[in-house]
Write a structure and sequence with these properties.
The complex is a heterodimer of chains A (235) and B (119). By secondary structure, chain A is mainly alpha-helical. Chain A is built from nine helices and no strands. Chain A starts with a helix and ends with a helix. Chain B has one domain. Chain B is 76% helix and 0% strand. In chain B, helix 3 packs antiparallel against helix 4. The radius of gyration of chain B is 21 Å and the shape is flat. Classes of the chains: A mainly alpha (235), B mainly alpha (119).
């Protein structure tokens, strides 16, 4: 075979054109790209939080700040409530992936059931967050606000620093607030997708790709929480 | 929105070929995530307060466990492990910028730590 006739042959490799090299549907690629950009936003916020914390000699001790279970006890239970929130969010991620799995089998009834479970999980998480915020507001925290000195003494293991407390307060509400806003919009989007599933929109379309796309978003929200949980509550 | 997606209906069928996770695998990943979280709790509530592990070692362990959890969520729940290598590389390689940013801001924080008066 001469080298010229080789040029005439139609190439069939994934990147020689004529086909989608990633074989992923357009909307799904766009969702991935959106999530990458969103991950950058969250990373910037968390990196700034890390830099602030790194620059300070003392910082509020998370085990002392977060030790209440709203409605049950005001102190003595570090990490218990946030543990519950983490469990709820992981659980709702599982129900979401089960909805996607049901969508692959085009089982409308199962998709509806798992979407409902996911939405309930989302609302439970938001409820927990509202309870936690309310508790912190009552303690005196808020955007630009910190509790009085006598309360702050119980929240630091080292020397008390009002600047650290203020930075902690601002960043806590901004970052968990931004995350909570994502959970809230996720729940709204999930409700829309649930309505479309009930209406039979996806059944007519022949595929449940939209469920996969909102699933990607929902798992991303869970992913962000994993990082928020580590850097605010554990480290 | 709907007319946009009817165009892609055939793509959807093609996508079904590499089907999603089995239920068994989903629950397996769930128990891995739950297990890692339980380990984090043991470190936070027993190992560090009890003096079995210094705080700074604990922090490295937390970060390693967090990245481990992140891997399971992205690879299995978000299905990235089963996508084409091109997509995997595209969505992960950009985080080099974030790594760079982390290093940059930690240096900055370290500088402030040494040079800013304590307030």
């Amino acid at each position: 075979m001469s080298s010229l006739s080789q040029l005439d042959q139609v190439k069939t490799t994934p990147w020689s054109g004529g086909r989608s090299p990633w074989s992923v549907e357009y909307g799904k690629i766009m969702m991935w790209f959106f999530l990458v950009s969103d991950a950058f936003t969250f990373s910037s916020l968390l990196v700034y939080y890390g830099a602030q914390r790194f620059s300070k000699l003392t910082w509020p001790d998370p085990d002392l700040v977060f030790q209440s279970i709203p409605g049950i006890t005001d102190s003595g239970a570090p990490l218990v409530f946030v543990g519950l929130m983490t469990f709820i969010l992981i659980m709702s991620s599982v129900t979401m992936v089960l909805a996607v799995e049901a969508g692959h089998r085009r089982s409308k009834k199962e998709v509806i059931w798992w979407m409902v479970a996911t939405i309930i999980g989302g609302f439970m998480f938001l409820g927990c967050q509202a309870a936690e915020w309310t508790h912190l507001f009552h303690e005196g925290f808020g955007w630009g606000k910190i509790p009085p000195m006598e309360t702050l003494h119980h929240l630091f293991t080292g020397e008390v620093s009002t600047v650290s407390a203020l930075q902690f307060s601002n960043l806590f509400f901004t970052i968990t607030g931004f995350h909570g806003f994502h959970v809230f919009s996720g729940v709204i989007i999930n409700i829309i997708i649930l309505c479309m599933t009930i209406n039979g929109t996806f059944e007519k379309r022949g595929h449940y790709l939209m469920v996969e796309k909102v699933g990607l978003y929902w798992h991303f929200v869970d992913l962000v929480w994993v990082f928020v949980f580590t850097f605010f509550y554990l480290v | 929105m709907s007319e946009l997606h009817t165009d892609h209906a055939h793509d959807g069928h093609a996508h079904d070929e590499h089907a999603g996770l089995s239920k068994k695998k989903i629950w397996q990943v769930f128990f891995i995530l739950l297990g890692i979280t339980v380990v984090e709790f043991i470190i936070a509530l027993w190992a560090i307060p009890g003096g079995h592990m210094p705080q700074h070692i604990g922090n490295y362990v937390y970060i390693a466990l967090t990245l481990y959890k992140a891997f399971y969520i992205v690879a299995y729940f978000m299905h990235l492990k089963f996508e084409k290598v091109g997509l995997q590389v595209t969505v992960s390689i950009v985080f080099i910028f974030i790594l760079y940013f982390i290093v940059l801001m930690l240096i900055e924080g370290g500088y402030l730590h040494l040079h800013m008066p304590l307030v």
